[in-house]
Amino acid sequence: MSAEAEQSSNLRSSSWKWTVCGLLLLASAINYMDRQTLANAAVRITKEFHLSQAQYGNIEAVFAYAFAAGSIVFGWLADRFSVRWLYAVVLTMWSLAGLATGFVHNEQELLWCRMALGFFEAGHWPCGVRVTRALLDARERSLGNGVLQSGTSLGAIITPLIMSAIMTAELGSWRHAFQIVGVTGFAWLILWFTFVRKSDLPAPVRLTETSDKGDDASLWSLIFSRRMMVIFFVIASINTTWQILRAWLPKILQEGLGYTESQTLYFTSVWYVATDIGCLGAGALAVWLGKRKLSVHAARVIVFAGCGALCASCAITPYLEKGWVLLAMLLLSGAGALGVFPLYHAFTQDLSGRHQGKITGIAGVVAWVLPAQAQKFFGVLADRTHSFDQGLLLASFLPLIATLPLWLFWDSRTSKPVDERQNVPPPRKERASEKRSAHDFDGRADNHASTVHDSDESAHARTLGLEGDYTLADIKRHYRERMLEYHPDRVASLGSKLREIAEIETKKINDAYAFFVSKYGSA
Fold first, then answer.
1. Average pLDDT in the chain
2. Is 291 helix (H, G, I), strand (E, B) or coil?
3. At 494, is the secondary structure helix, strand, or coil?
4. How far is CA 509 from the centre of its chain?
5. How many helices (DSSP H) and strands (DSSP E) are in the chain?
6. Maximum CA pair distance of the chain?
7. Distance, CA of 362 to CA of 71 (rounded, Å)
8. CA 138, CA 415: separation in Å to the nearest integer?
9. Radius of gyration of the chain from Cα atoms?
10. Is the separation of the CB atoms in 127 and 91 below 8 Å?
11. How far apart are alpha carbons 495 and 162 in whole angstroms?
12. What does the pLDDT look like over 307-319, one tens digit per residue?
């Protein structure tokens, strides 16, 4: 994103930024409404088209493979074009694919519709994650990503209720649900273009041919870095568990546990309420812990491990009798299974801003190739054993296992990746007579950093309010925020002693900013 874009978003209010995050939540909800209609109508569809468990698993696998392909395509596009328009395009296309599913007549047509749905739904995540990274700083991103991710639960909560009201005793009445859900996305477009201006999310800066080559080398080194290997393992693990639960829970409840379709639909809605609580709670808890004595990274890992432990509780459900204890365990495991995702997205946002879309897209391929195979394996295993227990047991421990590489192999030392948003101007001397304001402040600072040693970096980071991993864009944003606290207009009416303190604090803030620019340069 260009420096102008960052300046525009910085001048926007905090309430506006969280309103946009609310729109991301709605987009996630629509995404899952279109996706979950199949899972909630799975028993009816398999009966109408005479599908085996393995064939149903293959339909889910086709969706996953298409999602993997779309992740690459839209991950690249999100780094090249304005996500304001790209987001609108992908949401329109997946809504049309969902709408078309309501008119299919056989398995082959269903496969084509699910393929299109998976391909275009993949664009949601590179766009959404890029938006949260552009608007929020490192401390806020876990919660922002939680809002983004929690929309999946909101959509999945609403969908069973809609389908319960729409579907009748007629076997083919599931089609109306696809048609109604398919048209809901178009209302979102009006809100999106109303709240988000062109200047808020313009196209990322196009680099010169020379810098492109260097950037490509940087991207490749990033892909094969230790952190990226950890990201690949984590997303493959957590998404396999989530996709198994998402796709098979209605079948497990009806065909495995003997609940009726109506009971299943209502419990599925409650289950997604639990996942939403887990998602938002995990993001908020990570932010809360990060503001205490824990580093941002440590807070994320601790919450991730807790969510993984909750998900692992699903392993005991095959040994429980049908009843409220079993259902409670499913609710806890659902909260943990989705709670790890906002933390995962926050980890990816620490890698690079310039390549955020590509990182999300490349990780998305890994995220969906393994689940595609797992879906087919889960169906084959269910056919062979006439039970869902073994597959559920295997899937439940994956998020907890994914905690290990985050703890053991993620380099938690502060990193400062440079991206196209990080256009921090070099420091210069500022005359005492010059005034600063929120609108014309250009990041100027007194050049006091030349004599400061690297060992003082943590002190300067505390002065600016920086925690954990931060980029030059984060430094600039925090510098502006701190300077505005001591703006001349805000302290002019104070006593001489307080104005003197404000001057001292202003010098400390300038020293800290000048230190970082002196050490890391400007983009």
1. 79
2. coil
3. coil
4. 32
5. 22, 0
6. 83
7. 7
8. 12
9. 25
10. no
11. 62
12. 999 999 988 888 8
Tokens read off for 503: 């001057």
DSSP codes of every residue in 441-457: --------GGG--GGGH
Nearest to 401 by CA among 238, 232, 514, 261: 238
Write down the residue that tokens 């999946």 correspond to. Answer: 152
User: Whole-prediction pTM value?
Assistant: 0.61
Residue type present at position 176: H
Structural tokens at position 273:
């309420």
Structure tokens at 253: 């409840």
CA distance linking residue 517 with residue 510, whole number of Å: 11
> Which DSSP symbol is given to 125?
H
By the 8 A CB rule, do 142 and 286 touch?
yes
Helices 324-349 and 138-166 cross at an angle (nearest 10°) of: 140
Query: Positive or negative, the Cα torsion across 148, 152, 158, 162?
Result: positive
3-state secondary structure 60-71: HHHHHHHHHHHH
- HSE-CB for 124 with a 13 A CA cutoff: 30
Do the Cβ atoms of 148 and 345 come closer than 8 Å? yes
Which of 268, 252, 234, 257 is closest to 381 using CA atoms?
A: 252
Give me the amino acid identity at 330.
L
Cα–Cα distances in angstroms (integers) from residue 306 to residues 197, 302, 332, 399, in the given order: 39, 6, 11, 10
pLDDT band (50, 70, 90) for residue 210:
very low
Q: Which amino acid is present at 73?
A: V
Residue with more model confidence, 139 or 16: 16
Name, of 50-54, 368-372, 495-499, the range with top average pLDDT.
50-54
Which of 53, 28, 36 has its CA nearest to residue 178?
A: 36
Write a three-state SS string for 191-248.
HHHHHCCCCCCCCCCCCCHHHHHHHHHHHHHHHCCHHHHHHHHHHHHHHHHHHHHHHH
- Rounded to an integer, what is the distance from CA 224 to the centroid of its chain? 22
Cα of 298 vs its chain's centroid, Å: 19
Contact, 116 vs 62, CB < 8 A?
A: no
Beta strands in 217-330, from DSSP E residues, in sequence order? none
